[in-house]
Structures
1.
Amino acid sequence: TPISASAARTYLATVTPRAEGSTSGYSRSLFPHWSTVSGNCNTRETVLKRDGRNVVTDSNCASVSGSWFSEYDGATWTAAADLDIDHVVPLAEAWRSGANSWTTSKRQQFANDLTRPQLIAVTDYVNQAKGDQDPAEWMPARTSYRCTYARMWVDVKQYWGLSMDSAEKTALVNVLNGC
């Protein structure tokens, strides 16, 4: 569960916007992801089990049946292959917001963070359309989920000490003021 809207607004009031850094030197491989969580289960499989209903896994921890509701677009899926695990704060966005100075170990922790609201199972093509955009550039199509998404974004950025640019902060403030 992300921080409350009021906690997110309070935090945003303390944020001094900073110009976003470049993607120079960025590569997804600098954020090792889908680490082993336990046994044969990696982060992706763990999120699929957590976010799905009646999920059945095989001996390799792969989801073989179940259903998943994508909060971003309201679609329901019955094949895990139709889902991506979204990094709410995309890896490239994190890089441009300060993760470029982190160790590989810290980037790995960020990319596999199951404690904060950083990972969510969503429709694959919706996640791909989101890409590495921030809330000034992209918000979930389901308007009823935007408050939750903004709270998740702020929670992750705050915990990991990542910067925000002014357009990103303004978009978040505007969404959160309506929550």
2.
Amino acid sequence: MLRHEGDPTMTTILTEHRVDAAHRSDTVRSWVRAGVPGRLAIVDRELDPDDSLVAALRTCGIDTAVDGDDLAALVHLATTPPDVVLVAATTPGDAGRFVSVVREQIGCPVLVAWEAGHEGQLREAVAAGAHPVVGQPYHLDEILGALRPLWPTSAPPAPAVRVGDLLLEPDGYECRVRGRTLDLTTIEFQTLALLAARADRVVSRQALIRALWPTVGDPDGAMAATVTRLRRKLAAAGAGPVISTLRGVGYRLESRTPRLSG
């Protein structure tokens, strides 16, 4: 049975994993309330099965198993197939081959976790069909967000995010400014959603690149062009310059900046 969201044990587990308060009250709580059954297999030689992340995932109702060896993991996956596999890019000797075997022989989707300096393994995994949407070190809210579209159909919906006059509906990829719908591309919406999730705080260039442009040849150029288009569209909707730049560091969505006319 899942513990109630106010249970001190759950609070301790989630706090130990340093979950941001906003995500603890929205993303994490939606998983806890839904109690959706499902199994996640994590393949990472650096992750202890008793890590607070694993305990937090289980508290969210996710049956989580951890393997530190890719060959042992394949045996366990074949015996008890999970709904999703999360593999650290540096754990398999051949990341591409591992992902191919899991997708073709086990028949489940694969998320790949990575950090700067391991782009080679990441490219191999992505080329084999993995989703490069989880960064290292791990963050609970990021993993839950990555699991949502791959989880059983009863997975809890993504909570709406409101920042000033902006309202974002992640499941429908909709963004509105005072009720007016903005016509955003997928990458524009994803960029705005990442900034909105951390409103009034700087989101680093590295975090944005890791999440949205991990295999692009010129990620800084692609990111700058996307932010420029977003600013133009937000301004046209009357929202003003809501995205500020901290040169050389990243971008910040200012919740107190918008001052719409009318």
3.
Amino acid sequence: MPLVLKSIKIGVFIACANFLIQGISFLVQNYIARNLGTSGYGFFGVLQTDYSIFCTIADFGMGTLVLAFFGNRATKGRLFQSIFQLRVACSVAAAIAMVIFAITVRRHHPIFYGELILTLGLVFQHAFFDWYFICGKFWKKLFISKLLHSISYSAVMGVTLLYFKVSQIELVALAMVLAALPAFTFGVTQALSSKLLRLTRRTFLFFKLMFKAAAPYAISSFATCAYLPVGLYVADKFASAEFLSSYNFGHKILVLCSGIMVHFISSNLVAQHMSNDKFVHVKEIAIFTAFIAACSSPLWMFPRQFLQILFFAVHWTPDSLECSASILKILSFSLLFQAARLSMISTLLKNKATWTYAIIVSAAGATNVVACSLAGAFLANRYIPLFALTGDVVITVILLCYYIRKGTLRW
């Protein structure tokens, strides 16, 4: 089976396993938007973006590092023990950092208390053990974990939003943390033993080596926060609450789709470890990009209908629907750029060119921050989503030039 087809097959399975919770999450987002109202939902989007960035800090590139370097070995013996302890330490450190961020930056923002509550979510993430299930190819356990979280999330958020009709950001955040506990507990029962709690000198030496090896992955992960999320922050800073809320609807859909793209990067790495091919093939890029274009075409062909279907509980006004549809249509093209560069990124990671990857991602991310910020400060609000794609364009072009210059681009 061609490498690209293996990647799509594995990626589709991982994406489908995650689709349970992602689908339920979108259903819940409907009622969060309805309960919080227009401006409240825009602020809630900023809170969730803050949380996703600190999740990136908690990961510190370790998920990609483990997949690229260890694969199945990461689920066994002392190596698994050390990796688990490292992931816990990173999560706790990120939670402390998020508390400091909330106190210093969000102190007078409407999401302040929600920010403090979601720090607990960094420690008790429902997806904490995903790396273990994927590395070990424990597909059934991964599916059970997502199913369990889907049931828990549906029950907790249903009672919170429909029965109690909660309309405070901090209480919604608390419900989200509680909903993650069953899936986290399932992961604990599948992977944990008393040996994992033992700390030795060897443990700290492993931490040091992993942090050194993960540095480029971590920088790359941080730099990815300078892409799509920047548009939301710029809207929060320069635009009205109504535009921020409209932007958040389109942003939510793109974050969901981009999360699925991350699963395909993982699947591509798994597939590439089955092959000794170190070249990037234009044919594979074209096939995968065409596949993603076909899957994402409703986002730019029928954005209004797509928004009304996914956010069916929202009371749309003609202006808000038109604004959100325009934003979604523009942002959806990010997926095509992500698809085009997927095999180029996974090839860099497999070939251990991690610092090259970090530099490229960071340079494009910095360009995106500057371009989007200038657009927010000096241009009309409607240009913010367009300039939020700057980073996607720049990184894709840089990667193509890199492989052309290296002479490793093949048909």
